[in-house]
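Entry 14. Ran structure prediction on the chain below.
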Amino acid sequence: MDKINLTIDGRLVEAVSGMTILRAARGAGIEIPTVCDHEYLPPFGACRMCIVQIEGVRGYPTSCTTPAAKNMVVHTQTEELRTLRSRILELMLSGHPNSCLVCNHRELCEKYRPKTIKAGRTTRCGFCSDRDECSLRNLALDYQGNELNLPTLYSGHNLERDDPFMDRDYNLCILCGRCWRICEKIHGTPAISIINRGRQARIGTSFHKSHVFSGCTFCGSCIDICPTGTLTDRYARWYGKPDQQTPSTCVVCPEGCSFFVMTSSDRIVATRMTAFTREASLCAVGRFVYAQIVNSPDRLKLPMIREDGDLIPVPWEHALSRAVEGLRKYEGSVAFLVSESCSREDRYLYRQLARAMNARIGFVPGAMGGDRLTPQAVQTAVESGEVKAALLTGDFLDKGGLCRLEYRVVLDCLPSSATETADVILPVAVLSEVEGTYRNGSGQIKSFPAVTPPPGSARPEWLVVRDLAKTMGFDGFDYRSPAEITPNIVQDGAPAPFPGTPRQKIEDIPVRYRGHLLADFACALESLGLPVSPVGPLPKGMLEGYQILEKREIIPNFHLLKIAAPQVARYANPGQFVIAMAKETSERVPFTLVDWDADEGSITLVVEEVGRSSREVAALKAGDHLAHVTGPLGVPIAIDRKGTVALGGGCYGIGGIYPIARAMKEAGNRVIGIIEASSDFLLYMEDKLATVCDELYLATKDGSRGIKGGVQEVFTDLMNKGVAIDQFVVIGCTFMMRMVTEATKPYGVPTYVALNPIMVDGTGMCGACRVSVGNDTRFACVDGPIFDGHLVDWDEIFSRRAAYAREEIEAMPQNADILESAQAHGLKTGHTRNCSQ
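Output, structure tokens:
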């Protein structure tokens, strides 16, 4: 192709004929802002952020669609262009939650809360799991400063969680078109596209069908290419931005696809395609389930031996000796059943050990179907009694076959019927935890590195087999790494090719890994029709009592529930809370009492969806039942005549201050109410609060209503006007309460805060809500929840709140919506376990 020269921002740039201005600029290291453009996609020109000025050309063409021409003179960073881009950004942000971008407290807030809050809907950057990678946020911080001149028009689209692996919040969508364009490029016919017109335009499936029935293969390319937090991986979204990506190979099935392993702090959080091409696309298991296998909370971590019928953990040396002792006893009647999904190096050592022991060996396909599949010769030998002992690397035999064996050594990563009957369990590292090579169904040899540590004391299989052989006294097993084993592999058979192409057909995705049903630890697969092991019905709550009388989402992400709880309503007082459990297996979670009616026997809660338990509660509907409601708990706030009492509320605290305001008003106080929200569409209960407050002030972080700022700005304004406040009570997130106490302290205004956000168990047993108040150690649930905010050690609270961050992420439920959706679409589901990450 012919080469041409053009000038961009005063620099002579060489380009190829037909290349766009944007590509030419990037090749020269000149950055032009864009959101919709991507190197794997053809030019689209939707966002218009890449506009430029070209001498001799009228208007402002988009650089992503305009071809570079010989001797063209282009300007990309003029003041006029910067102003136009700011206006374009304002238009995009007017339909995208943006309050954090213009909040005066953003930097301080992100300092104290570096991790995003695990909310359902994303109503601001602090709730957005894609905050650290959001292209729109980065552009806004660069171009907009701290002001937006257009109001935010929140679309109010439903949060879509009805497919197996994705959450879709189209309130964040800017219609860049990347998702459907990459879907079309990779799969030919896109499963999604732009639907509706004008202001109602959005991305969706034809006739609003579930993605399960839209032709979606769940390759994840739309998630990985989305520039905002609109499309997110339900499993990986809350781990934050990965700090490393490593090329590797998926060995769950014989396809042996190449991919990137995405890790954060040495923990796998996701996998991604190596390129946005049809050839590099992944199946649903490779993209979404691989990480869940590695991170399964059920992983085997310790070697165990059976003593008097019970399995007990022992040191590795003891477990190896016991395994060797048993296998030696049955020498000549031992069989190895080995998964084909292990590395070539592992299989080589298994063969060498079997040969040395004169044992039968069979390799089980790595992508087994719904029924357990074993090599027929070994199966027959077990059934006939010729084989009396076995070394198993997975869940390959049914109960009958296992019971016929007299001795069982299991090298595996997950519990199964094999480990239930095992005499020795040797936990092994798998997938991203091991290194080696793999010959896929096409005969191609691929390598994979170890990028994450195994759980507990689990070890790579090659190391376990080597040590078994050395303990038996066999020569020729003195290997120090898989790399030393590889040259010895002269010939190894490729695993059987997978039937069909799993990258293109949902029905062909793997069912088992090492004999384990994949849907058992990735419950989302059940909604695709994959089989799951029955575990019996879970309790759905009490048949009588604790019925939800009313349930509605009052603002995005906040749910009002009126619950039948007559005993709680009879004794409730302002400032108290209840412990609620959605199901018998749910966590115990505290919720502040917003209102109660002793005559009706009801209590009212405002539940903010910010984690597993609140997610379960938010998923309930009117007429459903909570398993448990315990209360009222906590020490009520003292209600007496103070004079002028100010009450500040934010988030759930807007509802939380209502009963206190009502009681303070009835006690003869002048009551000043101050409520804050990120934007005006997140304010609620204004009319109800106005009936119990002499004055009600509003504050929004984006200035869309009331004072721009928060409760502390309103307080400072009142102080400057000479208003005397005798007591201040503040309820909201820990950051908001801290900021208010710092604002009131110089004025000497007694300020009390409700520390409900730091509670876990709610009874004083777990100690998680321990807090230093002055020189004393208190427990928020039994000594509070209300304390003198000026005496609270806020630094301690913020440091301790991060202690269980990973555990909270792993507890997030995945099946609150998908199973209901599957049943609604006629899919047969039998999964009843509480499936979390």
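The first helix runs from residue 21 to 27. Will compare against last week's run tomorrow.
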